[in-house]
Design goal:
Elements (H helix, E strand, L loop, with lengths): L1 H15 L7 H4 L2 H7 L5 E6 L5 E7 L7 E4 L17 H7 L4 E3 L27 H20 L4 E6 L1 H12 L7 E7 L12 H6 L1 H10 L4 E2 L2 H13 L1 H12 L11 H4 L7 E2 H13 L9 H8 L15 E6 L8 H10 L3 E6 L9 H4 L3 H4 L1 H11 L1
Parallel strand pairs: 3-4, 3-5, 5-6, 6-9, 9-10
Antiparallel strand pairs: 1-2, 2-4, 7-8
Helix pairs in contact: 1-9, 5-6, 8-12, 9-10
């Protein structure tokens, strides 16, 4: 482990000697970006039932029904504002929406706990997306409804930011009545039908997980690794844009190399090794189910040898599914599986632009042209 740390540090120092400084928008946090682009921003702390302290950003608006934005894996609230005045936060704020942007546990904004230290206590990282849906999301929703005196809120999720709503609706069905509408952008649920490189990554997932356990690594994309990624991508912007395209689907027009110095200031962000392990389990088992602890522990926790599926028929909140043909993480076939299983899908939309990919939903340069008009119409229709 010491040798890995030393090698990582040497690499980071080597790259730093030639890496340019991050672009200004890559250095600003969520509040800094909001203020720069002319929006008032409040910061709120929300404590979950199991003691995690989450940061919640509020851009006040005049609408009576609040709207909650939830980010995906290895991401944070920043993803909804890093495109400045062309970002989702800016577009919604310009139309008077009362916007709340969440951060799940483990992100740079939610790295706190009433008892645990993320740098000292391994227990801090003992969670997967199940806990994000079962603990984080209800705490955030209850806080917003309490502060606004609203009976329901609208929500927009990206990627795993939708998985946690599916977990919530199926494990705590009473929360379906608190969500008026979920607009699910690139919704991660079933992880079947994955093309390369994800098909290879999931097959190698168990081996990678064992390596991380051997290295005593419970936090993915810790500060040291993020520094290496940032410094390398500051130099090799075209290479990093190409690598992201390989993961999400190539779309050089929407994720241009010039945007990389902004993006890498905010992405990737820490999550737990267990979160990645849970996703790999789902992909290998071709299910959307709870974490697999092994048959003995499963019997103790679930009362059965295999982990139970999330019952998506219990997710009765209105859901609008948004996807794209060039999304390598959420193929259209997987969205159709969700449409079939979810109880109340009110819209199923595939973005017309064929190159539109997984990340374009939040980072695309022309989201105001390809995506946001549809989102606004859906919000108006079901508000």
């Amino acid at each position: 482990m010491k040798e890995i740390i030393i090698l990582t540090s040497l690499l980071a120092n080597l790259v730093l000697q030639v890496a340019p400084e991050l672009a200004e928008d890559g250095r600003l946090d969520f509040t800094g970006l909001a203020n720069k682009y002319g929006y008032t921003c409040e910061e709120h702390n929300v404590t979950t039932e199991d003691g995690y302290i989450l940061k919640l950003f509020h851009v006040p608006g005049s609408s009576s029904r609040p709207i909650l934005l939830m980010h995906g894996i290895i991401d944070s609230a920043d993803t909804f504002i890093i495109r400045g005045n062309k970002s989702l936060v800016a577009v919604l704020a310009s139309r008077g929406y009362d916007i709340w942007v969440g951060n799940v546990r483990g992100t740079q904004y939610s790295r706190a706990h009433t008892q645990l230290d993320p740098d000292k206590n391994k227990e801090f990282w003992d969670y997967s997306y199940h806990e994000l849906g079962y603990y984080d999301l209800p705490a955030i929703i209850d806080y917003i409804l309490s502060r606004t005196n609203a009976d329901k809120l609208n929500a927009i999720g990206h990627s795993q930011g939708n998985s946690i709503f599916f977990v919530l609706g199926s494990t705590k069905p009473e929360y379906n009545d608190k969500v008026n509408l979920l607009i699910a952008l690139a919704p991660v649920g079933y992880l079947t039908n994955l093309p390369p490189p994800w098909s290879f990554i999931t097959r190698a997932g168990n081996v990678l997980n064992e390596i991380l356990i051997a290295l005593d690594t419970d936090e993915l994309f810790n500060k040291q690794l993020r520094t290496v990624v940032q410094d390398m991508c500051s130099v090799e912007t075209e290479l990093c844009a190409s690598m992201l395209g390989e993961l999400g689907g190539p779309d050089a027009e929407e994720l241009e190399p010039a945007f990389i110095p902004v993006l890498i200031g905010h992405y990737p962000i820490s999550t737990s090794r267990k979160n990645g392990e849970h996703l790999v389990q789902n992909a290998m088992d071709k299910k959307f189910c709870k974490f697999d602890y092994g048959s003995k522990t499963n019997m103790e926790i679930y009362g059965q040898k295999s982990p139970p599926d999330y019952d998506l028929r219990k997710v009765t909140m209105k859901v609008a599914l948004y996807g794209s043909r060039n999304d390598r993480l959420v193929p259209v076939a997987n969205m159709k599986l969700l449409e079939k299983e979810l109880a109340n899908v009110v819209e199923f939309r595939i973005i017309k632009r064929r190159q539109f990919n997984h990340m374009d939903h939040v980072w695309g340069r022309n989201m105001d042209k390809h995506l946001f008009p549809h989102v606004l119409k859906t919000l108006e229709k079901y508000n």
